[in-house]
TrEMBL record:
It is a multi-pass membrane protein. It comes from Fulvivirga imtechensis AK7. The keyword Phosphoprotein does not apply. PROSITE patterns: ATPASE_E1_E2. Residues 6-80 form the Cation-transporting P-type ATPase N-terminal domain. The lineage of its organism: Bacteria, Pseudomonadati, Bacteroidota, Cytophagia, Cytophagales. GO terms for biological process: export from cell; inorganic cation transmembrane transport. This is Cation-transporting ATPase PacL. Its main location: membrane. InterPro entries: ATPase_P-typ_cation-transptr_C (IPR006068), ATPase_P-typ_cation-transptr_N (IPR004014), ATPase_P-typ_cyto_dom_N (IPR023299), ATPase_P-typ_P_site (IPR018303), ATPase_P-typ_TM_dom_sf (IPR023298), ATPase_P-typ_transduc_dom_A_sf (IPR008250), ATPase_P-type_domA (IPR059000), Cation_transp_ATPase_P-type (IPR050510). Keywords: ATP-binding, Cell membrane, Membrane, Metal-binding, Nucleotide-binding, Translocase, Transmembrane, Transmembrane helix. GO terms for molecular function: ATP binding; ATP hydrolysis activity; ATPase-coupled monoatomic cation transmembrane transporter activity; metal ion binding; metal ion transmembrane transporter activity; P-type ion transporter activity.
Length: 905
């Protein structure tokens, strides 16, 4: 089958015929398989993936490695073979370590990207299935609805109020009305082909069925894909700031190196030797493991988040999460279970509060409500022998269909007598939907109410939206003009339900004698007859209450932003602990408010109700202008701007539209608010680990530099030779540091306020830590020189081995001291990577001291057991010192927390 051009010029039948498919049953699985072989996957070719060889090569272009290579070349010229070989070995080790870390990070990210692929509903073998969009083939019949991103180029074959925004292709921002039946001129521009939909465009309203005509790189988007797919590798803000830190340290390293070189030369050492020492000192100062540790911590962190149902779409989100100060969340489905059930029905004069009631026989007025509820409804009822009755559709709608069945009103039976011939879909600003039905046969219920017109419109939606359109009300006495008194009675009954956290929907109808199909149907939505209301219960989610209190303890403000009625919203918010005040704001309030007034209000109000998606954007803006870091949830098409604007845009994995997912930084696979809090917790842990690594690395490096600079006071010009320095650096920064980068979170992680994004990476306590640990390592090392160095035995290097071993152990001790206090300090299982790298470091460290060939290489000699024990003991001293600092800090923190709690009381 060749790919046909100009499909927009053909009729639906001709297209179906050409693509050898069927609107009803779609393709068979066998046929779709063979077409998949012919056309390949429906994917845009990815920009070039990083080739592992290139990745390896890049390791050798890192500044530090380049410096080392230059040093190796110089030492080769100077005839220092052993130094040359060992520096080269170290270069290779550095490069391999960097490569492994980056490779793992890249793979982790690729796995995450795969998970973010959209799904589509396709008809195959006569049934509707959900498949990943990449498996679509030409000829597939697909079903799409509001919020979907069109997954391939398609010819539309059935529509209901379909509007598609094609800005991605045509630049035209206004959505285009699409019509299945149209046949278009061959040379019509893309934007005028109203019977087609193109990959990457967005369904902003309505539903449709369509046949796939082109996939992958053959689509219109595919043709321009090369232009747009230059996906930029985003660097996270933290990466940029760490680069900055790296630059400062490089300058510091250069200065220290120069100083060591000068001192050595002044003290009579050869320039050549001192040059190599200088380079090693420079290398020692710079935490070269940092970029790799950062990448891997972020990548592994996002994998850990995925295990807990938070899919990270943009890497910077991982670090921003740790700084979130406000979480704005939808209500339905995120804070509540989105498991709706009808629990009451009220009609003028008759109320049923324990629906479904035992008697199961309901008066006509109740039945009329249920009939409207089930017919003005897009949920589908499926009755099968094994599973009984199941309803597929949006939970509010499904609950109504289910309720009608319980009262003996089966949706598809009713549809035979009252077929739907038109509809005005729901949208978040109208908060109602209407359907138009033909009264084919009169059913008893219609006869009972004397409904005899040719057509009838049913309407369901928010009661406040319906009341404004109602001219009449149906009471026991028939249809009456709606009066103020009636409106008052409806509102008070409505509020009574809403105050209990119940969602209330109203029902109305209008008889229509002549239906002008050409005119827009919107004008029919007036002069309707109000019939009654149903109360739907949607219980709060189990884990949310504790997640909310965790948030509050962590200094994060939870805010509810919902389209639901204020009283319903407030009742749920109070149950979950989101607010304890009586204050809330509605979309209407927001419209009347100036930006300044909003700025003032937004500080204290935690519940926003009857809010339209565009209001969400204003709320985010307002919060952000006060310095808040905002996470915001959203699921609809119109939520995208707010999701993009928020610091963390959070989309719903289950109920969210493709468009909202595209706009988000993170997707909640379980739609659950508690998952956002978990992700914040992980985000904080990740940041802690980076700081842990930096403190460890800088403290150790400072220690080494101090020894190199101050040893001359004790008569030693070169305290550690280049190889020893580089080795220590590699083991500690490279291995132990990597292990520290994945420590589990601290216990008090969620008991402290969020870290400000404006704070420097190294805050005061961190700088103090680096200063004192560096000094302590320096002092211990100088002590070792003092006791072991004998100027009369210039050739003896025993003292140097002792110094080498001690610095190694103090750094290991430092790493242990910095471990998280949420587990037993020496637990081998709380962080398995740490255990592995510790064992490896110990083996390597002891090998270079005790294995004959190796120790020659490093100019080391075997240590006596007693001296080895002393150096281990000095490592333990370091560990204890760091632990004491931790305990003191925790104590200080608790006292501060107590003070702030007391002052709040
Ligand atoms: P959120 O998810 O933002 O917390 P929500 O799901 O409670 O909000 P929306 O879905 O925007 O809110 O619904 C807003 C209002 O629209 C509801 O309170 C209800 O009155 C009305 N509504 C919701 N679903 C339907 C429906 N299927 N048919 C008619 N009206 C509906």
């Amino acid at each position: 089958m060749k790919l046909y051009e100009n499909i927009h010029t053909e009729t639906i039948d001709a297209v179906i015929e050409k693509f050898k498919t069927s609107i009803k049953t779609g393709l068979s699985s066998k046929e779709s398989e063979s077409r998949a072989n012919e056309y390949g996957l429906n994917e845009l070719e990815e920009g070039k993936r990083k080739n592992p060889w290139k990745m390896l090569f890049e390791q050798f272009t890192e500044t530090m490695v380049v410096i080392l290579i230059i040093a190796a070349i110089i030492s080769a010229f100077l005839g220092k073979e052993i130094e040359t070989i060992s520096i080269l070995l170290i270069v290779i080790l550095f490069a391999v370590l960097g490569f492994v870390q980056e490779y793992r990070a890249e793979k982790a990210m690729a796995a995450l990207r795969k998970l973010a692929v959209p799904f589509v509903r396709v008809i195959r073998d006569g049934t509707v299935k959900e498949i990943a969009a990449k498996y679509l083939v030409p000829g597939d019949i697909i079903v799409m609805e509001t919020g979907n991103i069109v997954p391939a180029d398609v010819r539309i074959i059935e529509t209901a109020n379909l509007k598609i925004q094609e800005a991605a292709l045509t630049g035209e921002a206004d959505p285009i009305d699409k019509r299945a039946q149209a046949v278009i001129k061959p040379d019509a521009p893309l934007g005028d082909r109203v019977n087609m939909a193109y990959m990457g465009t967005v369904i902003t309203l309505g539903r449709c069925k369509a046949v796939v005509v082109r996939t992958g790189m053959n689509t219109e988007l595919g043709k321009i894909a090369n232009m747009i797919q230059e996906v930029q590798k985003v660097r996270t803000p933290l990466q940029n700031r760490l680069d900055q830190l790296g630059k400062w340290l490089a300058i510091a390293g250069g200065l220290a190196a120069l100083l060591v070189l000068l001192i050595g030369v002044v003290m009579g050492e050869s320039f050549v030797d001192m040059f190599l020492v200088g380079i090693s000192v420079a290398v020692a100062v710079i935490p070269e493991g940092l970029p790799a540790v950062l990448t891997i911590t972020l990548a592994l962190g996002s994998q850990r988040m995925l295990k807990r149902n938070a899919l990270i779409r943009k890497l910077p989100a991982v670090e921003t999460l740790g700084s979130v100060t406000v979480i704005c969340s939808d209500k339905t489905g995120t804070l509540t279970e989105n498991r709706m059930t009808v629990i009451s029905i009220e009609s003028a004069g008759i109320e049923i509060h324990d629906f479904p009631s035992k008697s199961q026989s309901y008066p006509h007025s109740i039945q009329l409500n249920l009939m409207i509820g089930t017919l003005c409804n897009d949920a589908e009822l499926k009755i099968c022998e094994q599973d009984g009755v199941t309803v597929i559709g949006e939970p509010t709608e499904a609950a109504l269909v289910d309720a009608a069945v319980k009262a003996g009103l089966v949706k598809h039976d009713l549809e035979l007598q009252l077929p739907r011939i038109g509809e005005i879909p729901i949208d978040s600003s109208r908060r109602r939907m209407s359907t138009i039905h033909q009264l084919k046969e009169s059913i008893p219920l219609c006869s009972a109410y004397n409904l005899k017109s040719e057509y009838i419109m049913f309407m369901k939606g928010a009661v406040d939206s319906l009341i404004g359109l109602s001219s009449h009300i149906r009471t026991e006495n028939g249809v009456e003009q709606i009066t103020h008194e009636w409106v008052g009675r409806i509102r008070s009954a409505h509020d009574k339900m809403a105050e209990k956290g119940i969602r209330v929907l109203g029902f109305a109808y209008r008889e229509i004698d002549i239906l002008d199909q050409v005119q827009s149907m919107h004008h029919l939505e007036e002069q309707v007859v109000f019939v009654g209301m149903a109360g739907l219960m949607d219980p709060p989610r189990e884990a949310v209450k504790s997640a909310v209190s965790k948030c509050t303890a962590a200094g994060i403000r939870p805010v509810m932003i919902t389209g639901d009625y204020p009283l319903t919203a407030m009742a749920i918010a109070k149950k979950l602990g989101i607010t304890d005040s009586a204050e809330f704001l509605t979309g209407e309030h927001l419209t009347k408010m100036s930006e300044d007034e909003l700025l003032e209000k937004v500080r204290g109000v935690n519940v926003f109700a009857r809010v339209a998606p565009q209001d969400k954007l204003r709320i985010v803006n307002s919060l952000q202008s006060q310095g808040e870091i905002v996470a915001m949830t959203g699921d609809g098409v119109n939520d995208s701007p707010a999701l993009k604007k928020a610091n963390i845009g959070v989309a719903m994995g289950i109920t969210g539209t493709d468009v909202s997912k595209e706009a988000s930084d993170m997707v909640l696979l379980d739609d659950n608010f508690a998952t956002i809090v978990t992700a914040v917790e992980e985000g904080r842990g990740i940041f802690d680990n980076l700081i842990r690594f930096i403190k460890f690395s800088l403290g150790g490096n400072l220690g080494k530099v101090l020894v190199m600079l101050l040893a001359p006071i004790l008569g030693v010009t070169i305290a550690l030779n280049p190889m020893q320095l580089l080795w220590l650096n590699l083991l500690t920064d490279g291995l132990m540091g990597l292990g520290l980068g994945v420590e589990p979170s601290e216990e008090d992680n969620m008991n402290r306020p969020p870290r400000s994004t404006k704070d420097p990476i190294l805050n005061r306590p961190a700088i103090i830590h680096v200063a004192w640990t560096g000094t302590l390592i320096g002092v211990i090392a100088l002590g070792v020189i003092y006791f072991y160095f004998d100027p009369t035995q210039a050739e003896d290097t025993y003292w140097q081995t002792m110094l080498f071993a001690t610095i190694g152990f103090t750094q290991i001790g430092h790493a242990f001291g910095l471990r998280s206090s949420s587990y037993f300090l020496f637990s081998p299982v709380s962080n398995k990577l740490f255990t592995v790298v510790t064992v490896l470091t110990l083996i390597l460290q002891l090998s270079v001291i005790y294995v004959p060939f190796l120790d020659d290489f490093f100019s080391l000699v075997p240590l006596k057991t007693g001296d080895m024990l002393i150096s281990i003991l000095l490592g333990i001293v370091m560990l204890i010192a760091v632990r004491i600092e931790k305990i003191l800090n925790l104590h200080k923190f608790k006292v501060r927390l107590l003070h702030s709690k007391l002052s709040e009381m």
